[in-house]
Amino acid sequence: KGVEAVSMHNQKALFLSASQYDPSRQLAVIEVFHQRRVDGIIVGDSQLGDAQMNRLARIKVPTVFLNSQVDHAYPGFHAVGIDNYAGGVLAAQHLWALGHRHLAYLGSTKRPASNQMRSLGFAETLRGYGLPPSALATHHSTSLADDLRIGYELASAIDYTQTTALFCYNDSIALGALTYCRSAGIDVPQRLSIVGFDDVAIAQFSMPALTTIAQPKVALGETAMQLLLAVLAGQPTIDTILTPTLVVRHSSAPAPKGTAQ
Q1: Does the global pTM surpass 0.70?
Q2: d(C-alpha 246, C-alpha 91), whole Å
Q3: pLDDT digits (tens, 9 = 90+) for 88-98
Q4: Domains, the chain, ranges and CATH?
Q5: Which terminus of the chain, N or C, has less C-beta within 10 A?
Q6: Cis peptide before 75, with omega less than 30 degrees from 0?
Q7: Contact 228, 40 (CB under 8 A)
């Protein structure tokens, strides 16, 4: 919405294509856009490798990466993203304040850069509070399955004799974990708290409604398009990192009595 709104306001035509996290497909789409002589390109959630980035650099079309999963430090490339580390910090602060002392992170290597930073922000914040390493379990799925299934499968492998809180890479994984808990008779949030990331539309309608770290999605799109327009106009630009926020709903609650120790 943000990209489209700024495009329309500036009377720019917008072409869209989805690549399903496939680097080869991403580059193929970029090549097509280049052949159509587009003025600039915004690449969302890029996973382009070095060879593909080198090819993109040779095309020399002004490019903005939005929430990129790879290093974009090439001449002519620009970036807008979310502070994933800060999101992990917010989740840790929230769950720690609720008294949770045995926690787990559920991630996915499909988005390696953001997954690493969210996990790192979460873990380092908890260590800073004095949480021993043994009290934090980290599970990263390498599966290419959909995130709901990943969340269900990861949640099924958790030892719930002590674990009272899960922080999930995104809302889809969190909703998959919530589905597992429902099937296993684990009460959320009375027995287990779950926090997601993104604040997708369905998060507020899950049962219970999902506590999550919200990305300013419209602002990200607006900023990316504004940055691209500035590049095209020859104006000085800087890469931009936006800050996520905590949205507290009903999937997180104080740790069960006798576990906050």
Answers
A1: yes
A2: 7
A3: 999 999 999 99
A4: 2-83+216-243 (3.40.50.2300), 84-214 (3.40.50.2300)
A5: C
A6: no
A7: yes
